[in-house]
Amino acid sequence: MASEGVLTTLRAGWNALSGIAAPKAVIGGLALTAWNHVRYTRDADVLVAIDAGRIDDLVRALTAAGFRARHVPPLRILDGQGIIQFTFQPPDALLPFQFDVLLVSGDFQKEAVDRAVPWPALTDARDLRVVQPDDLVVIKLLAGWLIDRADAAMLLRENREAIDFVRLHREVVGQGISAEYRQVWSDAFPSEPMPHLEG
């Protein structure tokens, strides 16, 4: 399970955003924890489907809850992805944690948020929603770092029964990440040939 400090940060940020009528879902390292792959992280990442004209409302809601924007102006565009980064100091923590709000961009991310499900096994916070493991695999492959590919392989291995492989393979082809997926499949299931990718 993730550290209590980063979970406290996530809950506080999620609660602050509850007054903003915008679908949202947990992604990043905490989403890995939800899907049976615990990896240390000090960041809580949330993908939010919100209109550009309401970003100031989002920033005000988080600021009122004790979050501090890391940049002025708060919104940054990194590799085409809108992101607003905050820090938050839980009451009992020695150092602050990071809370990143990523703005939905494109049909895939919108569908990933719409398909999000209650966080499995986190019984004290059933309002938290997390992207499904197949969507998280695509997010990790698009990120492209070595650690993200290792995460994607672990997600495949640990959540095989829960993954919608029809959707996963469609997105892999559509996003142009077939080569990366083949490598991850080989890492996850070294003795098993990968199913044919249509498209």
Descriptive overview:
43% of the residues lie in helices and 18% in strands. The protein is of the alpha+beta class and 199 residues long. It has 2 domains: 131 residues, Beta Polymerase, domain 2 (2-Layer Sandwich), CATH 3.30.460.10; 68 residues. β5 and β6 form a beta hairpin. The chain is globular.
In the CATH scheme, the class of the largest domain would be: Alpha Beta
CATH architecture term of the largest domain: 2-Layer Sandwich
Using only C-alpha atoms, the radius of gyration works out to 17 Å
Roughly what is the average pLDDT, rounded to an integer? 92
Output the structural class. alpha+beta
The H/E string reads: HEHEHEEEEHEEHHHH
Number of domains: 2
Per CATH, the superfamily of the largest domain is Beta Polymerase, domain 2
Shape: globular
What percentage of the residues does DSSP assign to strands (E)? 15-25%
Please count the helical segments. 8
Poorly predicted segments? none
Q: What kind of sheet is the major sheet?
A: 6 strands, mixed
Estimated helix fraction:
40-55%
**Termini distance?**
38 Å
CATH topology of the largest domain: Beta Polymerase, domain 2
Number of strands: 8
Question: Keywords for this structure?
Answer:
Beta Polymerase, domain 2, six-stranded mixed β-sheet, alpha+beta
Give a brief rundown of this model.
The protein has eight helices and eight strands.
What's the helix and strand layout?
Elements: H1 4-17, E1 24-27, H2 28-34, E2 43-48, H3 55-64, E3 68-69, E4 75-78, E5 81-88, E6 97-103, H4 106-114, E7 117-118, E8 129-130, H5 133-143, H6 146-158, H7 165-174, H8 178-188
Parallel strand pairs: 2-6
Antiparallel strand pairs: 1-2, 3-5, 4-5, 5-6, 7-8
